[in-house]
Design a protein that fits this description.
The structure holds two protein chains of two kinds. By secondary structure, chain A is mainly α. Chain A is 63% helix and 6% strand. Chain A has helices at residues 2-34, 46-53, 57-77, 86-95, 100-113, 117-130, 136-148, 152-163, 171-183, 186-203, 206-239, 247-251, 263-275, 284-290, 324-349, 356-360; strands spanning 257-261, 292-296, 307-309, 321-323, 374-376, 383-385.
Chain lengths: 391, 314
């Protein structure tokens, strides 16, 4: 009798268990369909959460951290409105102020994804106050200022803060130089890159030597272009029309002589000092000063290419003159693509197309970027821009 | 001394027969074992999550063990009348209380040792079976430079091997044969938690001498809460002062009462070194915390002895 009772109780238990599982399964399906996540908008303020954590602050911060990731994922795949999870990061970073990923991820969610950069940077500022010896937070904020909001002044502040940390990597110095370059402060960028270059020479760091060498040439090139554009603007002001030839700048006297750095001279100087076998950094000021020369007329293009008058000005770029180096790589890609198409055409049809329009079945619209024209020979299949025939 | 040890040994034997001890232990071990799964949900700070979870579990379940095992120790002796047999023997009451305290503390510490060993094992094992370690240990790069994942059999063998390596390292750590900054930090945190639990256990014994297990449990948990908030209590006093609420007599009395409460209540935050263990290279030696833990526990046990001596069992 007792045995039967046990079996009946067991069966009842199993029936109830099946009922519970079936009901729960149905509920979970509904949750998946209509409410893939629950927001944490009504989380109390950090002080209260800290109070009720009873010393288990870090584990509670971890729990909220996981929740913030889930919540972010849910919003990312649905409405992309992250405002309901903003306060999660505030609470997490109050519970565990040293939890660096919470600041950086929070900034990404609030600033980059939520397009609320000020609030995102405020979170990083909070992290910097609580973790003054970590370079990663100001470094991260500097990145946001350069790439997302283009506030170079602020970026410089953050990178300088990062440099104060003992664990700050060396390349932050070069980022600061790059900001000066992007900002158009060529003199400062130039000096900073020379400093980086000399330091790299002292440390025998070949990678940095190659990198800063490349950047130095870029700074000089942009500096020259700036000087030329200032002269072109003067020309327009004086004659009421845009320049047609670069020589006009010299002929009409709008481009005089100026003290500018000379790329080849700089490299020679560095080479000379290096041969002495001493540390280079003490000669920094000397090298900088000696690298400047008086340049009359059009400065020599540092890449061995040329300057060209831009056919049109846009809202993004209102310059009159550019350095061919800036777009030469793009031109190379275009020329290579057209040459491939010509070769493929010949393979298919047994002969080269008569014109480029025939090749593409419509008018070949690409303009020759340096103001010349595209040269195409239907007999040999040759294709090149008239201004750079040996590209 | 021998009498105290005899009572402590008996208390330990009695405590380890308590089923709730094993339920709590199993829960703690399950949570620690699941840390690997939980850490898979994160996008960063995986190691931190595993350590946080393990250290918090050791502290929290240690507390629960101290509370649920400790609260009935003295009361049950009185309830079952076995206390008469004991006090009729040539045993002083202070020896009885000290023996009970020692036995309970030993039980709590043994459980913490098991949890710590398991936690160390989880850390070592997680480290050995992480994707990077497995790739480096048994993955291969083909001649074409393509990574080839290990076979199921190779992986199975590696898991078994990792199990033994992790077990060996755990034993080595506990026997001080295997050292790493991480394990030294973990052991330091557990050490400070032991001091914290010495205070909580002393309170559990004190309450057990004067009230029922349910009330003792409530009082002990409340003591723990107050202890973890003692720094907030003194902040409240400072706040009263800052806001100028201590000018009137009522305000002054309130202020001094709060200040006194902050000084008398156990400052358990002093023993919370988990943040240092996670973020610092070394958990700094805190002599003040050690001194405070020992003195405070002794004071509460003395109080328990005084209360117990005054009890009339007629």
């Amino acid at each position: 009798m007792n045995e039967w009772r046990k079996i009946i109780w067991g069966i009842i238990f199993i029936i109830l268990l099946v009922g519970v599982i079936a009901t729960q399964h149905r509920q979970l399906e509904q949750v998946q369909k209509y409410a893939p996540y629950r927001d944490s908008m009504y989380l109390p303020t950090p002080q209260y959460v800290k109070l009720i954590a009873l010393g288990y602050d870090m584990i509670l911060a971890d729990f909220l951290w996981l929740r913030s990731i889930q919540s972010f994922g849910a919003h990312f795949t649905t409405d992309r409105d992250y405002r309901p999870i903003y306060n999660l990061f505030d609470v997490i970073t109050d519970l565990d102020p040293k939890f660096i990923p919470a600041y950086t991820f929070g900034q990404m969610v609030i600033g980059e994804e939520g397009r609320n950069h000020e609030q995102g940077l405020a979170l990083i500022d909070k992290g910097m106050l609580k973790n003054p010896r970590h370079y990663i937070l100001p470094y991260w904020a500097g990145y946001v200022c350069v790439w997302d909001i283009q506030d170079y002044q602020r970026a410089k502040y953050y990178y300088r803060q990062a440099l104060k940390s003992p664990d700050c990597p060396d390349h932050v110095h070069r980022i600061l130089s790059y900001i000066e370059l992007k900002w158009g402060r060529y003199r400062i960028a130039y000096e900073k890159y020379i400093e980086d270059y000399l330091r790299a020479l002292d440390q025998n760091n070949d990678v940095i030597i190659a990198l800063t060498k490349r950047r130095l040439r870029e700074v000089i090139s942009r500096w020259y272009v700036k000087v030329l554009n200032e002269a072109a603007a003067k020309y327009k002001e004086k004659f009421g029309k845009e320049i047609e030839k670069l020589d006009d700048l010299v002929k009409e006297g709008v481009l005089g002589s100026s003290q500018l750095p000379h790329h080849a001279r700089l490299l020679n100087l560095i080479d000379q000092y290096e041969r002495r076998g001493e540390r280079m950094m003490p000669y920094f000021q000397e090298i900088v000063q000696k690298s400047f020369v008086e340049i009359k007329g059009i400065p020599p293009e540092p890449y061995g290419l040329f300057y060209y008058i831009r056919p049109e000005r846009t809202s993004q770029n209102s310059d009159f003159i550019s350095d061919a180096h800036d777009i030469i790589d793009h031109v190379k890609v275009l020329v290579r693509a057209v040459r491939t198409d010509i070769a493929r055409y010949k393979e298919l049809h047994g002969a080269y197309p008569k014109t480029l329009d025939e090749l593409y079945g419509e008018k070949f619209k690409s303009l020759e970027p340096f103001g010349g024209e595209w040269i195409y020979n239907p007999n040999t299949g040759e294709f090149f821009p008239s201004t750079v025939p040996d590209i | 001394m021998l009498k105290i040890l005899a009572i402590a040994r008996n208390t330990f034997k009695e405590a380890v027969r308590n089923r709730i001890l094993y339920i709590l232990l199993i829960f703690a071990l399950l949570i620690m074992a699941s840390s690997g799964v939980i850490s898979d949900l994160t996008i960063a700070a995986k190691d931190k999550l595993i350590k946080d979870l393990g250290l918090a579990s050791i502290s929290f379940f240690g507390l629960l063990i101290a509370v649920f095992v400790g609260i009935g120790l003295v009361y049950n002796e009185m309830d079952k009348k076995t206390i008469y047999t004991i006090i009729s023997k040539p045993i002083d009451r202070y020896q009885f209380v000290l023996g009970k305290y020692g036995g309970l503390l030993l039980t709590v510490y043994v459980m913490m040792l098991i949890m710590t060993a398991f936690f160390l094992f989880v850390i070592y094992f997680q480290d050995l079976v992480s994707d990077e370690t497995v790739s480096a240990a048994i993955g291969k790069i083909s001649e074409q430079g393509i990574y080839q994942a290990p076979t199921v059999a190779q992986y199975g063998m590696y898991l078994i091997q990792s199990f033994f390596v992790a077990t060996g390292r755990t034993m080595g750590t506990l026997l001080q044969l295997y050292h790493s900054p991480l394990t030294a930090n973990i052991l330091a945190v557990v050490g400070y938690s032991c001091l914290e639990l010495a205070i909580i256990t002393a309170f559990a014994i004190l309450y057990s001498t004067v009230s029922s297990p349910t009330l003792s449990a409530i009082f002990t948990v409340l003591t723990f809460i107050i202890g973890r908030m003692s720094e907030d209590i003194i902040r409240y006093a400072w706040r009263l002062n800052e806001k100028g609420l201590t000018v009137a007599l009522g305000g002054k009395l309130k202020y001094w009462f709060v200040v006194a409460a902050a000084h008398v209540s156990p400052n358990l935050e002093l023993f919370n070194k988990r943040s240092e263990a996670i973020y610092k290279e070394e958990v700094p030696w805190d002599g003040l915390a050690v001194y405070y833990g020992i003195v405070y526990s002794a004071m509460i046990i003395l109080l328990a002895i005084i209360v117990f001596r005054r009890r009339n069992f007629k």
